[in-house]
Amino acid sequence: VFLVGGSTRVPLIQQAVERVFKKKPIQSVNVDKAVVLGASLYATLKGDQSNLTRVQKASIANIAQNQDYNSSEIDKWLVD
User: Fold this and answer.
1) What is the spatial distance between Cα 19 and Cα 52, in angstroms, rounded to a whole number?
2) Whole-number Å distance between alpha carbons of 44 and 51
3) Other CB atoms closer than 10 Å to residue 78's CB: what's the count?
4) The predicted structure's pLDDT at residue 20
């Protein structure tokens, strides 16, 4: 389990994740930077794709397609 986002710094969240998944969460990256990079890559995918590599385009598109929400909801979150 790979934790990203500010709330994943909370020890109670970390303990809950470990209890549910029976594995210690991976916390070896800057959690805020991971969220920012993901959001910026997705925004670029929706806009000017000329700055993305083929692998980045495929990865982001795959993640967006495998979510329980649709891309218009993601777009709304990016604007909000």
Assistant:
1) 37
2) 8
3) 12
4) 93
Would the pLDDT of 32 be above 90? no
Considering Cα of 14, then 25, then 77, then 38, what sign does the dihedral take? positive
Q: What is the pLDDT of residue 15?
A: 92
Q: Determine the number of helices (DSSP H) and then strands (DSSP E) in the chain.
A: 4, 0
Q: What is the rounded CA–CA span in Å between residue 44 and residue 42?
A: 5
User: Is 0.85 topped by the overall pTM?
Assistant: no
DSSP conformation class of 59: H
Across 2-27, average pLDDT: 86
DSSP class of residue 66?
A: T
Q: Quick one: residue 48, left, alpha or beta (phi over 0 = left, psi -120 to 50 = alpha)?
A: beta
Task: Give, in degrees to the nearest 5, the angle at Cα 39 between 49 and 52.
Answer: 25
Count of other CB atoms within 10 angstroms of residue 55? 8
